[in-house]
Amino acid sequence: MGLTASKALSAPASAKLVPVVPGLLSIVIPAHNEESRIAETVLSYAAALQGAPYELVLAIDGCEDRTGEVARSLQARVPSIKIVQSPTRLGKGGGVLEGIRQASGSWIAFMDADGALSPPEFLALLTKVQANGCAGVIGSRYWDRQRIQGSYGFLRWLLSRAFNKSVRFLFGLPFEDTQCGAKIFRRDAIEAVMSEIRLRGYAFDVELLWRLEKAGYEIRELPISWDHKNGSSIKLSREAPRMLSDIIRMRLNG
């Protein structure tokens, strides 16, 4: 049985991961009701990474549609797919954590299932983090708003910026965009903080970055181009207050 999405604060996550495969890149893709979009994302990344040592870890999270079925059909075409499926809703962070636990790579990335981050943009981030020697890199949509394509509404932008200001005030994190679905980390950094992670909802990213910073790992933020996709099941106006409540409680509880 998985945790429910409403249970944002829970027991710390297990730090136990599967054995590492040196040089392997693991891309964790959490997916909740993404039957119409996940195939295009997976196939585009599989094509871009052809010949490279990689795996796509699809964390199918309490779906009410055919996302799991679509993922299994993709496995026949893309042998590097690994499926982690929960029948109950774990939450965004819970899904990512389950995917990370099953990831074998020495580099662990996670990104959104909707394909808003193109393979070339992802590969540019990967090249930079491997060349710079830092523990991780995150993408930022807000360094240059001209690089955001699609209908990224004013309310979404306003709520996102307000949440980020709250994060910077509460935690002193230097990042402009903690919630961007474009993150790549060294496995050793993830392993060092996994046992401390408690958030399972959409504010999971904040806790992960905060704990990495507290542990002394260097995380860099780089501008990316972002093709915003409509049709997300996430209602930011509903989730934003919950996310704010989660990070306040996390800050108070340490």
Structural descriptors:
Spore Coat Polysaccharide Biosynthesis Protein SpsA, Chain A, seven-stranded mixed sheet, two-stranded parallel ribbon, alpha/beta, disordered N terminus, single chain, 254 residues, 9 strands
Structure report:
There is one protein chain. 41% of the residues are buried. The chain has a single domain, classed as Spore Coat Polysaccharide Biosynthesis Protein SpsA, Chain A, CATH 3.90.550. Helix 1 (38-48) runs parallel beside helix 2 and helix 5 packs parallel to helix 8. The protein has 254 residues and is α/β, with parallel strands linked by helices. The chain has eight helices and nine strands. It has helices at residues 38-48, 67-75, 92-101, 119-132, 154-171, 187-193, 204-214, 236-253, and strands at residues 21-31, 54-61, 81-86, 105-111, 136-140, 148-149, 182-186, 219-223, 226-227.
- For this structure, the CATH topology is Spore Coat Polysaccharide Biosynthesis Protein SpsA, Chain A
What number is the mean pLDDT?
A: 89
Show unreliable segments.
1-11
Classified in CATH, the superfamily is: Spore Coat Polysaccharide Biosynthesis Protein SpsA, Chain A
Work out the helix count.
Answer: 8
Number of strands: 9
Q: Helix-strand pattern, N to C?
A: EHEHEHEHEEHEHHEEH
Termini separation? 27 Å
Spatial arrangement of strands, main beta sheet: 3-2-1-4-7-5-8
| Basic shape | globular
CATH class annotation: Alpha Beta
What percent of the residues sit in helical stretches (DSSP H or I)?
Answer: 25-40%
If you compute it from the alpha carbons, what radius of gyration comes out, rounded to the nearest whole angstrom?
Answer: 17 Å
Hey, roughly how much beta strand do the residues contain? 15-25%
Structural class category: alpha/beta
